[in-house]
Design a protein that fits this description.
The chain is mainly alpha-helical. The chain contains 12 helices and no strands. It starts with 10 loop residues before the first helix and ends with a helix.
Length: 237
């Protein structure tokens, strides 16, 4: 059987491709491909919040978002966007005094705490949500991102894997998982994660260049270059 021959790569071609991919890898590292908890929270605004009826109470199996005072999460996000983290935190603290078990409020407070360098407190809030709601996908994703940004890659993977299991169509979370696995040098798993992201969103530049970097690390320069070129094309659209 005649074997298919791979195209011959000259030294100049390999040097050019390596330089391009190295530049992309540096960009990925500097920009932090894993989203912050605040970015995750802003990706999907919570539905309108309502105050529970008089005498009502929350149970473990009942959605808790409706307990938050109207506008509390939105006000906190607006304040954080404006650079007023203390005001955002104050708004959330006031809302939590009335609804201390509200998952949306706790996740939002964790986002503010994480964005302002208070990771241990943010983690406590997210673990508190997961203790009551083990299938809360936003809490899993936020905690995975928080741990990733702290360099606790092995711990982060558990939560990110659970997040994509619960919501397999979420492209950004597949990218977060791919980046974290890449940091752990789990390149085959990282490749699979990025491929799932590309499968869900073929024109996602973030997923395409993340996959290119992993392919380059797997010593597949031709495949890496194709993905790199696709990411450039996607970014130009």
């Amino acid at each position: 059987m005649k074997r298919r021959r791979e195209p011959r790569w000259g030294s100049a071609d390999r040097a050019r491709v390596a330089a391009e991919l190295h530049e992309e890898a540096e960009s990925l590292t500097k920009t932090g491909n894993v989203a912050t908890p605040a970015e995750l929270a802003r990706d999907r605004l919570a539905p309108p919040l309502e105050v529970p009826p008089a005498g009502g109470h929350l149970t473990r199996h009942e959605p808790t978002r409706h307990a938050a005072p109207p506008g509390a999460v939105g006000a906190a996000r607006a304040a954080l966007t404006a650079g007023a983290a203390d005001r955002a935190l104050a708004a959330l603290e006031a809302a939590l005094s009335a609804a201390p078990h509200d998952a949306a409020l706790l996740i939002e407070r964790a986002a503010v705490l994480g964005a302002t360098g208070r990771a241990p407190a943010a983690r406590r809030d997210l673990e508190r949500v997961l203790a009551a709601e083990p299938a809360n996908v936003e809490a899993h994703a936020s905690l995975g991102s928080l741990l990733s940004r702290a360099g606790r890659w092995a711990e982060a993977v558990t939560y990110l894997e659970r997040a994509v299991e619960l919501e397999p169509s979420h492209v950004d979370r597949w990218c977060q998982l791919g980046e974290t696995l890449n940091r752990l040098d789990r390149l085959t798993a990282a490749r699979r994660a990025y491929e799932r992201a590309v499968e869900a969103a073929p024109q996602c530049g973030r997923a395409l260049y993340g996959l290119a970097i992993v392919l380059d690390r797997l010593n597949l320069p031709a495949d890496a270059t194709r993905m790199y070129q696709r990411s450039r094309a996607a970014a130009a659209r």
